[in-house]
Design goal:
Number of strands: 0
Structural class: mainly alpha
Helix content: over 70%
Shape: elongated
Oligomer: single chain
Length: 257
């Protein structure tokens, strides 16, 4: 007579469908995959913004006329400062992506540099907007205001009271230099984005005081290295090959310029 235990032991156990057993785990994995892919696309878009912002800044450095009242009514003046507005807007978006890409390895040094550069871009956007759309109309109505405005850049005394504007413009200098140097050093140490671009950013912003020793027509050319560095970093972030499952802060970027 066969044993009951033997028959029961040979009976195959019913298999459960893995889809029914782990529905939450699969849904969570799918959601994480979608979020990672979305983050990669956002970083690439931020890289494009940084690239375009850097190109605009280079064009500003190349074509910016001398900071004299006679330049204000020229079409070239308006175009250059519209490009400066674009630099500020695109630069803010691009800088956010550059920081996000390196956030884990950036530390406090990079965070301070990021905040300083972002604040500088906000101030520059305001000044550039006035220079592009308001100052040309004031040149014929209140030329004394234009003379005073140019005095902020050239160090000449202003015939009118500009209120807090000279103080704000003076503040942009330390924000630009300190923010660029700190952001460049942090990028160099992080070893994620090209280190050459980090060095160029730090040196480009550190050279800003040299502009005061140059003729008025040559002073804007000092902006070109910073624009090239921003475009280089943006290009590296945009073309980086990123796998959705990879940790974005653990792999260096290899990009040539």
């Amino acid at each position: 007579m066969p044993e009951v235990g033997a028959h029961s032991a040979q009976r195959p156990s019913p298999r459960r469908s893995p889809d029914r057993r782990f529905p939450r785990l699969k849904a969570k994995a799918a959601m994480e995959s979608v979020m990672t892919i979305t983050n990669v696309k956002l970083l690439r878009l931020a890289g494009l913004c940084a690239l375009l912002g850097g190109v605009c800044y280079v064009l500003v450095g190349i074509f910016h006329p001398a900071n004299v009242p006679a330049s204000v009514t020229a079409t070239r003046w308006a175009i250059v400062h519209i490009l400066a507005c674009a630099t500020s807007f695109l630069g803010l978006l691009g800088l956010a992506g550059l920081y996000a890409r390196q956030a884990i390895k950036f530390g406090w040094l990079g965070l301070v540099g990021f905040l300083m550069l972002s604040l500088w871009l906000v101030f520059i956007m305001g000044f550039s907007f006035v220079e592009a759309f308001i100052l040309p109309h004031l040149a014929t109505v209140t030329p004394a205001f234009v003379v005073g405005w140019m005095g902020m850049f050239n160090g000449d005394p202003s015939p009118v009271d500009l209120g807090v504007l000279p103080a704000l413009w003076t503040l942009t200098g330390p924000l630009y230099i300190g923010g660029g140097v700190l952001f460049g050093i942090a990028t160099f140490r992080a070893r994620i984005l090209p280190r050459g671009a980090a060095v160029l950013l730090a040196l480009g912003t550190a050279l800003a005081p040299v502009a005061s020793l140059l003729p008025l027509t040559v002073q804007p050319k000092i902006l070109i290295p910073t624009g090239l560095a921003l475009a280089w970093l943006g290009y590296a972030l945009m073309v980086e090959r990123q796998k959705p499952s990879a940790d974005l802060n653990d792999r260096p970027v290899k990009a040539a310029i």
